[in-house]
Amino acid sequence: MVKIPTVTLNNGVQMPMEGFGVYQINDLEECKRAVKEALATGYRLIDTAQGYQNESAVGDAIQESPVDRKDVFLTTKIWPTNYGYEETKAAVEESLKRLKTDYIDLVLLHVPFGNYYAAYHALEDLYQEGKLRAIGVSNFYPDRYIDLIHFSKVVPAVNQIENHVFSQRKVDRKYLKKYGTQVEAWSPFAEGRYNLFTNETLVNIGKKYQKTAAQVALRFLVQNGIVVIPKSTHKERIEENLDIWDFNLSDDDLAQIEALDLKKNMLDHEDPKTVEWFMKKTMPLDNK
């Protein structure tokens, strides 16, 4: 079984460099099966969110898996319509119930919209109480990230952002490194856009190592110190995505891949339409 390296977060907690994401696995039985398959394959980081509406399936999978709960790094995210000091505290309690656990390894604020200051202060207090091993944010661009940390007691341990070979986020990474926050990449395959899986550069580099374009794309991120959370519901892909720890990209490989950067995100969190969508999509505390 593959042993996944870990990174030390700014509070000393160890986080696996690769995990399993469950975004858009809407069928709860399929989600539970995929998470159990991932755990059996060797993944030890599972990433979900209130907005994915599959926390209960993730909780069932971890509970039914022979892998000890203490060996699983579990992440969830608070939906913006659950922001607010008391609201966020209540939302975390509901997530704990759905995930069938008495602590969560990492809780993130999903987006920087709404009353996220009060929400983050609630996470700080829950962290101090020991219910959360680490706290952080997601989709916070450098301006809002820097603003938040200057009015908070706890520097976010993680910022989960869109990050892939076509959106390398070098400015974001510069400021996150400056203040000691770990970068975690959602959608490391760019949702298959820009023909990532058949990209000539990635395919040709992969041939040197008997790896696929997808594996090269993941390896590029982790070699840059970025945590990745690829998603798949297919057993062979779940296994393939984990098979990236037995090779190293050369400096020339890295330079070729850096040249693929389009410096453009698939989802622009500064676009008013994006903000409207997030704020209109209410996520009740009793979502299943």
TrEMBL record:
Site (Lowers pKa of active site Tyr): 77
CDD domains the record matches: AKR_AKR5F1 (cd19133)
UniProt keyword Magnesium, yes or no: no
Keyword NADP: yes
Active site per UniProt: 52
Binding site for substrate: 110
Span of domain NADP-dependent oxidoreductase: 26-261
Domain of life of the native organism: Bacteria
Xref: SUPFAM superfamilies: NAD(P)-linked oxidoreductase
GO molecular function, one term: oxidoreductase activity, acting on the CH-OH group of donors, NAD or NADP as acceptor
Pfam families: Aldo_ket_red
Coiled coil residues, start to end: none
Entry keyword set: NADP, Oxidoreductase
Family: Belongs to the aldo/keto reductase family.
Entry-linked PANTHER family: 2,5-DIKETO-D-GLUCONIC ACID REDUCTASE, NADP-DEPENDENT OXIDOREDUCTASE DOMAIN-CONTAINING PROTEIN
Name of this chain's protein: Oxidoreductase, aldo keto reductase family protein
Organism of provenance: Liquorilactobacillus ghanensis DSM 18630
